[in-house]
Write a structure and sequence with these properties.
It is built from nine helices and ten strands. The protein is globular.
Length: 225
């Protein structure tokens, strides 16, 4: 369980609060953070991955401040809409790279790649990343994430359907999963709605959809579709 207790975030170059007094809980299983584009999704991810510390408040993982937890112990996987790769390297190289930096030997890397290939429909192992489609890149990103143990998975505009969300969730087993999106139709599980950097709703995905219907940014999205 992850708890945001009155969390506020100012970036160092601006006194404006990007996130204001966030208070909510992310439970084991699937959670959704629903808000407008450019309105806090990636900032929440940067706090959880410890790229930034809260200006005010605390983020607790099972009661412990995440600032005092090592990255290895956190076990976070961040999957953005456009994952970053070594473009001129192969699918296999990119997939097992987390093991390479952890000094796993070649035999270990080969074994894990074969195991992951049975779980994820990957392009041919020697294909260079720059030749892959967006969907293929997404599959490689998931496969790369499976190389090491993950306790928390952040899907930042990564999935385009609930089916994809549940597929990724099932691959990572008991990992606490957070879907970050501006699309109400993708909300599932415990859902938090943010508006203007504030928490305006915590509860079910169904009732969250009712809440966002009254927010101006959702109305704009619906009108444009």
């Amino acid at each position: 369980m992850i708890e945001f207790n009155r969390v506020e975030l100012h970036y160092h170059y601006d006194e404006f609060a990007v996130l204001k007094d966030l208070t909510f809980t992310l439970n084991d299983g699937i959670n959704t953070i629903l808000c407008d584009t450019q309105s806090g999704k990636s900032s929440v991810c940067k706090l959880l991955t410890k790229q930034f510390k809260p200006t005010k408040g605390q983020i607790l993982l099972d009661g412990q401040d995440i600032c005092g937890i090592t990255n290895k112990a956190l076990g976070i996987l961040y999957l953005p809409a456009r994952p970053v790769f070594f473009e001129n390297c192969s699918v296999k190289y990119n997939t097992v790279y987390p093991l390479k930096v952890r000094k796993a030997n070649k035999a270990e890397r080969e074994k894990r790649f074969k195991e992951i290939s049975k779980l994820v429909d990957l392009p041919p192992a020697d294909t260079k990343i720059k030749k892959l489609s967006a969907k293929e890149r997404s599959r490689v990103a998931v496969a790369r994430g499976l190389c090491v143990e993950r306790k928390i998975v952040l899907l930042d505009d990564f999935c385009e359907s609930k089916e994809e969300i549940f597929t990724v969730k099932n691959l990572f087993g008991n990992a606490l999963t957070v879907v970050l999106t501006s699309k109400p139709e993708l909300a599932c599980g415990n859902t938090i709605v943010l508006d203007g950097g504030n928490t305006v709703y915590c509860g079910t995905a169904e009732k969250a959809a009712e809440t966002v219907n009254n927010l101006s940014w959702i109305s704009d999205i619906l009108r444009s579709e």
